[in-house]
Design goal:
By secondary structure, this protein is an alpha+beta fold. It has two domains: about 80 residues, Alpha-Beta Complex (Outer Surface Protein A, domain 3); about 80 residues, Outer Surface Protein A, domain 3 (Alpha-Beta Complex). Helix content is about 25%, strand content about 35%. It is built from three helices and 13 strands, in the order H-E-E-E-E-E-E-H-E-E-E-E-E-E-H-E. The strands form four sheets. The chain has a four-stranded antiparallel β-sheet, with helices on one face. Strands 1-6-5 form a three-stranded antiparallel β-sheet. Strands 2-3-4 form a three-stranded antiparallel β-sheet, covered by helices on one side. The chain starts with a helix and ends in a 13-residue tail after the last strand.
Length: about 180
């Protein structure tokens, strides 16, 4: 059995988990998340701990038990604490501002770039060169952060662009004569 799949997921107070044959629903103070249950995995709620066991001894069921456990653990964490990604803008004149559900970027193009945020995602700009993307669904937060970064990824010679806060950009040496 998968090492990750063997570990139970603790359900904190204030979080409700409902399991049906088709889907698992996690409701907490921040949001409600729903995910379909894979048919190869049996999910049980035993006294505030969720356990994941494969239906049979196949490699696919074994792998899927660990995957389902990780996904549900992220759901529980997301509805109780939430997830966030921090991006920084590097470049002269680069700035960002959050306007409700829109992110307005001025990043060296001839026009400002406006990025719409989907439902359940909040964007904040503590300073003009920092962007905080927050939400309860880890996959969506990461996807939106990747889409914002893809608008102007860091270039390899000066490092200008949008990067993750913990990202190190290795700069190339310029061409010598």
């Amino acid at each position: 059995m998968s090492r990750v799949g063997k570990m139970p997921v603790a359900v904190p107070q204030g979080v409700d988990v409902s399991i049906t044959a088709e889907q698992i629903s996690v409701k907490g103070p921040l949001a409600t998340l729903v995910r379909p249950v894979n048919q190869l995995v049996t999910v049980k709620n035993e006294g505030g701990k969720l356990t994941f066991t494969p239906q049979d001894e196949t490699a696919a069921a074994n792998a899927m038990s660990g995957t389902m456990r990780a996904l549900v653990a992220n759901m529980v964490n997301g509805v109780s604490k939430g997830f966030e990604k921090k991006l920084t803008l590097v470049g002269v004149g680069f700035r960002a501002q959050a306007q409700g559900a829109k992110l307005n970027l001025q990043i060296g193009f001839s026009h400002p770039v406006v990025k719409e945020m989907p439902a359940g995602i909040k964007v904040e700009c503590p300073t003009q060169t920092e962007i905080l993307i927050k939400g309860s669904d880890r996959q969506v937060v990461g996807q939106i952060a990747a889409e914002v970064r893809a608008i102007r990824p860091p270039e390899p010679y000066k490092g200008k662009g949008i990067r993750y806060a913990d990202e190190r950009v290795v700069l190339k040496e310029t061409k010598k004569k």
